[in-house]
Amino acid sequence: MSLVDAKVRDRMIVALDYPNVSAAEALVWQLGDIVTFYKIGLELSIAGGLDLAADLIGAGKKVFLDLKLHDIGNTVERATAAAAERGVHILTVHAYPQTMAAAARGAKGSPLEVLGVTVLTSYDDTDLATAGYRMGVTDTVRLRAGQAREAGIAGVICAPTDAAMVRAILGPDGRVVTPGVRPKGADVGDQKRVATPAQAIAAGADRIVVGRPVTAAADPVAAAEAILAELAGA
Ligand SMILES: O=C(O)c1cc(=O)[nH]c(=O)n1[C@@H]1O[C@H](COP(=O)(O)O)[C@@H](O)[C@H]1O
After folding, report:
1. How many domains does the chain have?
2. Residue 4: pLDDT band by 50, 70, 90 thresholds?
3. Does residue 25 lie within any of the structural domains?
4. What is the DSSP secondary-structure string of the chain?
């Protein structure tokens, strides 16, 4: 294990985007002490990921449960309270005012950090227009970051390219977490608003989310170490 300190390790969240628990466990085993924070998203949650979340927490890892909740207030409040009871560290909801306010109520009194997903990193202005939105990405992210602050949730998920603007809105205590992160030269895939790990942190992100740059790497350990080294120097 390299000499990257624990604070830097906690800045990198590895997305366990796998179809089953055994594949996810194999990566966790391989990465060992290098990675302290894992994200369990939609695919793995459907395939037994909630039990894996409990195991990871029991093993001393932090867990980001990425369910991107969006439903009526009562449902979101209760689902958020259930996530808080499981001891997960982060839960996502879509950044709609009703939804964020309900999640804030559900998380009240617990250490769970609720983050509002502003505009997905796979969307650009054209995608928003096609979906019927009047505003482009920047204005929508600005509006939603302000609404997240008003709702009283911990912070937001945004693209690294939005992080500086969002940091200015949320202030130093708000949480800014950025997926859409690609080391220099890495395949962008379906992401449209991307930056490097160092650029994300320099723009004001607290943490970055990385999936395929680690999970699809020929050597995931080397890939994770390289990202951590970049973060340590950022
Ligand atoms: O909420 C998220 O984590 C998320 C929000 C967003 O706007 N974009 C985004 O890519 N994500 C997640 O971040 C991860 C990115 O994965 P890679 O593109 O493989 O690095 C995936 O698990 C996505 O579900």
Report:
1. 1
2. confident
3. yes
4. -----HHHHTTEEEE---SSHHHHHHHHHHHGGG--EEEE-HHHIIIIIHHHHHHHHHTT-EEEEEEEE-S-HHHHHHHHHHHHHTT-SEEEEE--HHHHHHHHHHHTTS-PEEEEE-S-TT--HHHHHHTT-SS-HHHHHHHHHHHHHHHT-SEEE--GGGHHHHHHHH-TTSEEEE--B--TT---TT-SS-B-HHHHHHTT-SEEEESHHHHTSSSHHHHHHHHHHHHHT-
- Evaluate whether 205 touches 165 at the Cβ level (below 8 Å): no
- Answer yes or no: 108 catalytic: no
Residue 153 dihedral angles phi and psi, to the nearest 5°: -85, 170
Sequence letter at residue 133:
Y
Is 95 part of a structural domain of the chain? Answer: yes
Q: Does the beta carbon of 116 sit less than 6 angstroms from any atom of ligand 1?
A: no
> pLDDT per residue over 91-132, tens digit each?
999 999 999 999 999 999 999 999 999 999 999 999 999 999
Residue nearest to atom 23 of ligand 1 (CA): 179
> How much distance in Å is there from the Cα of 81 to the middle of ligand 1?
23
In CATH, what number is assigned to the domain containing residue 178? 3.20.20.70
